[in-house]
Structure formats: C-alpha cells, structure tokens
Amino acid sequence: MNQLNNLFEKKSAFGELFIRFTIGFHLIYGTQDNVFSWDRMLEFSEFLTNFGFPLPLVSAVISVYAQFISGIMYILGFQVRIAAIIMIVNFIVALIMVHIGDSYPGMFPAIMMLAGSCYLLFNGSRVVSIDNVFRNKKS
Question: What are the tens digits of pLDDT across the range 23-56?
Fold first, then answer.
C-alpha cells in the first residue's frame, strides 16, 4: 500500500486534469447551443429577464461567452487562474440570482462549477497545459 501511496503522491498533479477536463467540457457543452444559435441566446436572455437581470441580453452574451471560452481555457490549461476568477464570479452571481430558492439538486451543477473553479484558482494548471509549456521555456 505504501508503494501505491508513493506513486499517487508523485503523480498528484495529474489529479487536476480530472477537474479541468470535466468542468471545461461541462462549460462548453452547456453553452455551445447559445454560442452557435442566436435564437438559443435569445431564449437564455428571456430566462435571465425572468430572474430580474439588468440588461438581460448583454448579461446572457457575457455569461455564455465567458463560460464557453473559460471551458476551452480549462481544457487547454491556458491562463487557468484568470478563467477561474471569471467563473467564480459567474457562478456566485448564478447562485444568488437564479438558484437562491432552488433545491439542492437544482443548485448542484452551479455549486460544482464554483467549487471546481475555486480549486483551479488555487492550484492553476501544472501538467498537460499550455501554461506549463510557457513556464518551462522561461526556465
């Protein structure tokens, strides 16, 4: 068991890939319909209108593109901490404005996006990432 623990300890940085890829994919998957269809973006804008968002169309476009681009950044491991800050703000707003009266299962996806983004803010991207390639070139 000690050998197994040592192996996982040595390779612990790879654990971030599960977070980056899962959250990144979810962000892209959840917004791609709005990115590629203006009608879907208008539907999302109407959804935000129902929750009292100011400038709902502008809010929809900002939120959708922030999530879509951040998802790509997470997967690529590019400026992950910047993407994480943006997603933390996005999902705090989502939890307060949309999910505050929601059931726990209804809040869960937003909570997981927030928690994963907090993890990535503190840990960044250490392996299999564009950031790591640039870090190694500077050394």
Answer: 999 999 999 999 999 999 999 999 999 999 999 9
| Annotated domain spans of the chain | 15-133
Residue holding tokens 């109407």? 46
DSSP annotation string for 39-84:
HHHHHHHHHHHHTT-SSHHHHHHHHHHHHHHHHHHHHHTSSHHHHH
Cα distances (angstroms) measured from residue 108 to each of 30, 36, 79, 104, 131: 14, 26, 26, 6, 30
Residue 139 DSSP label: -
- Cα distance from N-terminal residue to C-terminal residue, the chain: 36
Give helix 15-36 / helix 38-50 axis angle, nearest 10°: 100
Tokens of 120: 């990535």
Residue 64 CB partners (closer than 8 Å, separation 6+): 31, 34, 35, 41, 44
* 120 close to 80: Cβ distance less than 8 angstroms: yes
pTM: 0.90
**Residue in the block written with tokens 């476009």:** 61
